[in-house]
Write a structure and sequence with these properties.
By secondary structure, the chain is α/β, with parallel strands linked by helices. The chain is 33% helix and 16% strand. It contains ten helices and eleven strands. The strands form two sheets. It has an eight-stranded mixed beta sheet with strand order 2-3-5-4-6-7-10-11, sandwiched between helices. A three-stranded antiparallel beta sheet has the order 1-8-9, with no helix packed on it. Strand 10 (229-234), helix 8 and strand 11 form a beta-alpha-beta unit. Helix 1 crosses helix 10, helix 2 packs across helix 3 (111-121) and helix 3 (111-121) packs across helix 7 (211-224). The radius of gyration is 18 Å and the shape is globular.
Length: 315
C-alpha cells in the first residue's frame, strides 16, 4: 500500500533492498561502490532526496554514499502491520548493511539519527563512524511538537501543489519559497481521490511515542559509543538546543561537534555546503578513502538498552 501514484518528474529509486519482514527499502547511490560505505538516513516525513546534495559531494570525494527511504516513506514499502518503531527500523538498516557487505559509516538526521544511535549503541552493526545530524537523546518538546503539527496537516490531502508549497513554507519560514513547484513532486503522491497526499504512511505519525523513555534509551546508547562520532547541530534548531548538544557531548566525550549557523533542524538542506565540508573533513581523518578506518572491526553483540519495549522515534 502507498499514498498514491508517484508524480511525473519524481525520480524512481536507483536501487532497492529487502528489509526486515520482507519490506522493500528503496534508495539512491553515488560514488564508487569500492569506496568507504556511508549510509544516509533521513528524518521522519522526509525521503532519501533530502541527502542528494550531500550524497553527490560524498561520492565525488571517493565515498560510496547510499541514501535510504525509511519504511513507510518515499518509495519504500509501507509496513503491513503498521510498525515503525526504532527496533524494526534498526533491523531494516541491519538487513541493508548486510546486503551491501561493507562496514558502514552511519549518518542520520532526526529519526534516522535515533535509529543510527540505537544500531551502534546496542551493537547491532559493526560500523566505522557515526554522524548525528541535529538529534540527540535530549530534545526540546516544543520543537518536536511543531514537527508533529506539520505532519498532521491535511489528513485528507491537498487540493493543489500550491497548497503543499504553502504548508512547507509556513513550516520553514527561513527558506525562500520556490517559484517552481516541480521539486514538490518528491514529497507527495497523487491519490485515487485526485488529491495530493504526503508520501508517508499516516500510521507512522500516530504510533506510540514517549520522549522520556526515548531519552533514557538513547542516553544509554550514547554512553556506549566507542567509535569516531560527529554531532552536527543547526544553529537555528528548535529541536536540538545547545544544551541538548552539550548533554550528548558530556555522555560521549570523544565526539566532535559542529554548529552550523544559519541552518535549522534540516541542516543538510539548509546549508549543504557547510554540512558536507564538515562531514568530509571528519571522514577523511577517521575513515579515509584508500586507507583503514580508525576503528578496528569487531563482532557485534546485539542487546537492548533502557526501558523494555519499543516506540516510534520523533520525526
Amino acid at each position: 500500500m502507498t499514498a498514491g501514484e508517484r508524480l511525473a518528474g519524481a525520480p524512481a529509486p536507483m536501487r532497492t533492498w529487502e528489509g526486515a519482514e520482507g519490506v522493500t527499502i528503496a534508495g539512491d547511490c553515488w560514488g564508487d561502490p569500492s569506496g568507504p560505505l556511508v549510509i544516509l538516513q533521513h528524518g521522519g516525513g522526509q525521503t532519501r532526496h533530502a541527502w542528494k546534495g550531500a550524497g553527490q559531494t560524498l561520492g565525488a570525494a571517493g565515498y560510496y554514499a547510499v541514501a535510504l527511504d525509511a519504511r513507510g516513506h518515499g518509495d519504500s514499502e509501507w509496513a503491513p502491520n503498521g510498525q515503525y518503531g526504532q527496533d524494526i527500523m534498526v533491523q531494516d538498516l541491519k538487513a541493508v548493511a548486510a546486503q551491501l557487505a561493507t562496514r558502514p559509516v552511519l549518518v542520520g538526521a532526526s529519526m534516522g539519527g535515533g535509529v543510527s544511535l540505537v544500531a551502534i549503541g546496542e551493537d547491532h552493526i559493526d560500523c566505522t563512524a557515526l554522524v548525528l545530524v541535529d538529534i540527540g537523546p535530549k530534545l526540546e518538546p516544543a520543537g518536536t511538537a511543531k514537527i508533529q503539527e506539520f505532519m498532521s496537516q491535511a489528513p485528507d490531502g491537498f487540493e493543489s501543489l500550491e497548497d503543499v508549497a504553502e504548508a512547507i513554507g509556513n513550516y520553514q519560514p527561513h527558506r525562500e519559497r520556490p517559484r517552481n513547484l516541480d521539486g514538490l513532486a518528491k514529497n507527495v503522491r497523487l491519490g485515487a481521490d485526485g488529491r495530493y497526499h504526503w508520501h508517508w504512511d499516516p500510521r507512522f505519525r500516530t504510533g506510540r511515542r514517549d520522549l522520556n523513555k526515548r531519552q533514557e534509551r538513547l542516553e544509554a546508547c550514547a554512553r556506549n559509543l566507542d567509535l569516531p562520532t560527529l554531532l552536527v547541530r543547526g544553529g537555528l534548531s528548535d529541536v536540538l538546543s545547545e544544551d541538548g548538544a552539550q548533554s550528548f557531548l558530556a555522555m560521549s566525550p570523544q565526539a566532535e561537534y559542529v554548529n552550523v549557523s544559519g541552518a535549522a533542524h534540516m541542516v543538510a538542506g539548509d546549508r549543504n555546503d557547510i554540512f558536507s565540508t564538515a562531514v568530509i573533513d571528519f571522514l577523511q581523518r577517521t575513515v579515509p578513502v584508500g586507507g583503514e578506518p580508525v576503528r578496528a572491526p569487531h563482532e557485534p553483540h546485539p542487546h537492548h538498552e533502557g526501558p523494555e519495549g519499543d516506540l516510534n522515534d520523533v520525526p
